[in-house]
What does this fold into?
Amino acid sequence: MMALVEHAVDVSFGDCDPAGIVFYPNYFRWMDATFHRLLQERAGGHARLCRDLDAVGIGLMDVGMNFRMPVREGQRIQLRLTGIDWGSRSLTLRYEAETDGRTVFEGHEKRGIFVMQGGRLTAAEVEPLKVMIQAKDS
Amino acid sequence: MMALVEHAVDVSFGDCDPAGIVFYPNYFRWMDATFHRLLQERAGGHARLCRDLDAVGIGLMDVGMNFRMPVREGQRIQLRLTGIDWGSRSLTLRYEAETDGRTVFEGHEKRGIFVMQGGRLTAAEVEPLKVMIQAKDS
Amino acid sequence: MMALVEHAVDVSFGDCDPAGIVFYPNYFRWMDATFHRLLQERAGGHARLCRDLDAVGIGLMDVGMNFRMPVREGQRIQLRLTGIDWGSRSLTLRYEAETDGRTVFEGHEKRGIFVMQGGRLTAAEVEPLKVMIQAKDS
Amino acid sequence: MMALVEHAVDVSFGDCDPAGIVFYPNYFRWMDATFHRLLQERAGGHARLCRDLDAVGIGLMDVGMNFRMPVREGQRIQLRLTGIDWGSRSLTLRYEAETDGRTVFEGHEKRGIFVMQGGRLTAAEVEPLKVMIQAKDS
It folds into this structure.
């Protein structure tokens, strides 16, 4: 399957819990790192993007993950950003992760571009980010 | 609101990202810690529970979180386990977190009790755990 | 023993590794959090201190830790900042941690106040921070 | 310089703190991962090594790190295990990390092989591990 960006993780001893499997918050660290790799490749990274859009940050609105199998030390996980659903003031990123051809998890992140407006944090229109990210596909 | 268990977290500098707000995977670390506090208080902790139920672990099937506001260094977050929906071979835990009377996030964890059966990891019936957790309410 | 600041940590399941004991990088997270509690209590926090001193950050130069015993899920660790050695352009913070009256670790952090000077990051004199921190002892 | 094992890390947004630089406990996560890569390559991994040596774990006795420069999101760090000093009941591992040809940190980990003996955790002789690790050099 085609992916907008891929991110491989070698699971280490310290990523695992006393049951010997990946401590699940680490999956979110790796999913977030996959998103930031997209920003690096297509928008110059988070800091530059915030300067360009006069934004405070590209923050989370909602996140979820469905787990299919436990993963242990020494296994390599391949994360893929498989698609983006563009809303008006949010974008939803869809991820899949696999190891040895088997699905580890499916997840999503709904994010907004947050700007200060009248002293309040507000979700701005995401169109400028959409243009940047889609530019490199053509 | 009544909670089955509460867990307070003082947000530190190192919990925050370059945008100055909590790096979101940390919220899952704290939600997981709230669940393990429940196991400590009502089932003798994860290790003893696994021995009692002949289980490998109480693992995740699905997890989600909805974010309402960013939190910064120096703020105290109060996490609450507000309810448990008992299925046959899974339980879904519902959480809320607030700071200064405002909701920070709402989240859920769907968990199973995993046992080895015929060489395969299988979700066992959760009734024994339900009995332990509800015993202390009466 | 008198401490400049104390910080209690309840060790959770997810803080531990497949050997069932605290994954050691977490001790550094907690030692760092103890330092930032000092800044909160005596200098208004890291962000305000940086504004007051026109600094980029209070960063690390050297760190070390000596481990005396393993700690498991469910134990409470008490961290104490026991002393500060003030240099001219650095300060060295000394820490101790214990559980149930037994020493868990002894550690130190050597930190500098980093400022931009002529386009380069330089360690500034720490005297202004010393004055702030010692003011509340008198 | 020759290294016993190397480990590359792409620094992500979430590895950094509000000052925009790597939150230092993460360096210890990566140093520990470098050690566990050595165990993977030369001793079959931590779990198998513990079975082979009838040990509880290869735990830390002492650790230290000297920082030379801050690192930011988007930079790649190359960690190297540069040498091992073998004691009788401990081994000391020496590490270096660099980015773009400049040293980021130098660090060490003093570790022991911990076994249960008469109901107490004791550091065993490290000779069997030394043999395994040096076997693949010849």
